[in-house]
Design a protein that fits this description.
6 helices; alpha+beta; phage-related protein like fold; 4-stranded mixed sheet; 307 residues
């Protein structure tokens, strides 16, 4: 017999499944862009050392040639707790034997809210990159990134210019070639098919520039010229980059996944629990997760505000 005394115990596993089902019902872009790290400590600190620079000439029977790696910038992740709760009184259940069963929609909303929070926090790392400092003290997307802590007089530029277009993408490739270098100044090879991240407002622009069916440059009348960008990049639309969710409808980002400089550090993945408060005579439900997210190096990519 189904009674109010066993409702929470009986349906907690199902509710937990509901939470995780809605958390995962929409493909999360952050899992494609951010390295997922599981760590049980309160803080997670990244330290880095550069590689070694270009080889130097050596003389016969002479020593030397030694070089120390340069220490790069550190980043501390402090995992914070996030949760959502709701409750149901004994009286509400007394008057309606199936009241807790009707909470399915609330439980599912918990999962959607958790997903939205994670997507919001991770996307904000990018769209705030034009105004929030990265570990080297410059904005994530800046024209003044120091080469390394010991050689601050040499700077690199990962702030692109202008709206997303064929011509601006060509300029971006030249800028990446000139500035995408490691802390010792050695050029880094741009990975094949880097991501182009963009908000929904740029969907049409992206289709015209990158579509596999594109055969010419979209901005010109002469359709005989080959569109060399078709298939060269991996376009990824992320609605959490949009202006109505805190981002921008014009900004666009070229992201290098292989560098793993964008991270989300999990101490506790989303979980669900339910219990009875006999003193207050309440059925209580809680979703909980602990994480932090951020960037450890500007070399995660290049970006433009689109203006």
């Amino acid at each position: 017999m189904l009674t109010t005394n066993v409702l929470t115990e009986l349906y907690s596993p199902i509710y937990d499944e509901f939470v995780m089902m809605t958390f995962a019902e929409e493909t999360q872009v952050n899992t494609r862009v951010f390295q997922q790290i599981n760590d049980s400590t309160k803080t997670y600190i990244t330290h880095g050392l550069s590689g070694l620079g270009i080889w130097v000439d050596a003389n016969e029977a002479a020593g030397g040639g030694y070089e120390d790696p340069s220490k790069t910038y550190s980043k501390t992740f402090t995992q914070g707790k996030l949760w959502k709760k709701f409750q149901e009184s004994f009286e509400a259940v007394d008057f309606d034997e199936y009241a807790l069963l009707k909470k399915e929609d609330d439980i599912k909303a918990m999962g959607r809210g958790a997903r939205a929070k994670v997507e919001t926090d991770t996307s904000a790392v990018l769209y705030n990159g034009f105004s929030v400092a990265s570990p080297d003290g410059q904005y994530l997307f800046s024209a003044s990134h120091p080469k390394n802590p010991d050689e601050t007089g040499t700077t690199y530029d990962n702030l692109l210019s202008g709206p997303l277009s064929h011509d601006n993408l060509e300029s971006a490739e030249k800028q990446m070639s000139d500035n995408y270098k490691d802390p010792k100044g050695i050029p880094i090879v741009v990975e094949e098919s880097p991501m182009i991240l963009y908000p929904p407002a740029l969907r049409g622009t992206v289709a015209r520039i990158f579509s596999d069916r594109a055969t010419g440059r979209p901005e010109i009348d002469n359709r005989d010229e080959v569109n060399r960008f078709a298939g060269k990049y991996t376009p990824v639309e992320w609605r959490y980059l949009a202006a109505d969710l805190g981002g921008s409808d014009t900004a666009w980002y070229i992201i290098f996944n292989s560098m793993n400089f964008l991270k989300i550090v999990w101490s506790d993945k989303p979980s669900f629990s339910a219990w009875t408060d006999e003193d207050l005579e309440l059925y209580k439900f809680k979703g909980r997760m602990l994480y932090d997210t951020g960037v450890t190096d500007w070399r995660c990519g290049f970006a433009s505000t689109g203006l």
